[in-house]
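Minutes, project check-in
Item: structure for the 77-residue chain
Input as provided by the requester:
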Amino acid sequence: MGAMSIWHWVILLLIVVLLFGRGKISEVMGDVAKGIKSFKKGMADDDEVANDTGSGPKTIDHRSSVEASKSEQSKVR
């Protein structure tokens, strides 16, 4: 039970084409391509909105609250 030979893949492909038909497979692939394009456009829109608001990535202070309050107090003095 090693790797499948080329004949296994050919038979599997033939069965898939017979079940779904050539037209159905091309429709599904077209829908996948549209989905990918829509996703990329949405990601680009999100980047533009973030750049327009002027708010860059937020920094998170991972120190404990005691250390954070001490550093804030030292800045005030």
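Outcome recorded: The chain has a mean pLDDT of 77.
No further action items on this chain.
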